[in-house]
Amino acid sequence: MSTGFKVVIPARYGSTRLPGKPLLDIAGKPMIVHVCERALEADAEQVVVATDDQRIFAAVGDLGLQAVMTDPNHQSGTERIAEVARIMGWADEQIVVNLQGDEPLIPPGYIRDAALALAGQDQAGIATLAAKILDVEEIFNPNAVKVVLDKNGYALYFSRAAIPWNRSTFPDQHDIASSSLPHLRHIGMYAYTVGFLQRYCSWSVSQLEGVESLEQLRILWHGEPVLVRIVDKTPEAGVDTEEDLNRVSRRLLSGWPTKS
């Protein structure tokens, strides 16, 4: 599989808590521009913003970056990326990384890690990331998605529950430091082949996906493998609220390292 990869950044204008989020100013630039810069720093061969809003399309184009207008009726960013791949005429074996448009602090190395992990094997059409959980409260937090792997690094299951469940120490004792089997938090970045993307978008929502509200369970439901690369730590949170916006602005203005 080729090691060259492209990055597509889904970006919608609508947001319940932060309307127009992709265009909000962070340290003198629209947020979507910071995200594009992370992708370029990862050495992506092409970076495309996938949007359904003319304001985002125009702003990205004015800054010399590439954007594609997509169907406003898509139910997920994955569907939006699949449309970009069709518009661009990318080959089935082309690797595409899905980078969320509200992640201006994502380490560029993580983008590259996901793409290279997928390129380095031939069993899965999708790769994602995970990091070891160091805070015991995180294990029991349903907003932190956990993943359990097989011996070869492919996902056995994703869940909002505390998996794997340590029968000896849970729920009253939480000695994760001495656990022989680390708990892993899933990091929601994906690298896909275009062929996999098209298959995925043809599948209906699975029962597991509906119960856990985790889109990635659709893949396991249909019997396809998901490769998981373990990275050093969970990246800093993205931008969902005004508080997040202020936090990220402070980090970037303080000289947050954007090379990794």
Could you give the topology of this structure?
Blueprint: E1 5-11, E2 25-26, E3 29-30, H1 31-41, E4 46-51, H2 54-62, E5 66-69, H3 77-88, E6 95-98, H4 108-119, E7 126-132, H5 136-139, E8 146-149, E9 155-159, E10 184-193, H6 194-202, H7 207-212, H8 217-221, E11 227-231, H9 242-253
Parallel strand pairs: 1-4, 1-6, 4-5, 7-11
Antiparallel strand pairs: 2-3, 6-10, 7-10, 8-9, 8-10
Pathway: Nucleotide-sugar biosynthesis; CMP-3-deoxy-D-manno-octulosonate biosynthesis; CMP-3-deoxy-D-manno-octulosonate from 3-deoxy-D-manno-octulosonate and CTP: step 1/1
InterPro entries: Cytidylyl_trans (IPR003329), KdsB (IPR004528), Nucleotide-diphossugar_trans (IPR029044)
Main location: cytoplasm
What does it look like?
This protein is α/β, with parallel strands linked by helices and 260 residues long. The protein has a single domain, classed as Alpha-Beta Complex (Spore Coat Polysaccharide Biosynthesis Protein SpsA, Chain A), CATH 3.90.550. It is built from 9 helices and 11 strands. It has helices at residues 31-41, 54-62, 77-88, 108-119, 136-139, 194-202, 207-212, 217-221, 242-253; strands at 5-11, 25-26, 29-30, 46-51, 66-69, 95-98, 126-132, 146-149, 155-159, 184-193, 227-231. Strands 1, 4, 5, 6, 7, 8, 9, 10 and 11 form a 9-stranded mixed beta sheet that branches. Strands 2-3 form a two-stranded antiparallel sheet. α2 (54-62) links the parallel β4 (46-51) and β5 (66-69). α3 (77-88) crosses α6. The longest helix is centred in the first third of the chain and has 12 residues, at 77-88. The chain is globular and about 60 Å long. The mean pLDDT is 90.
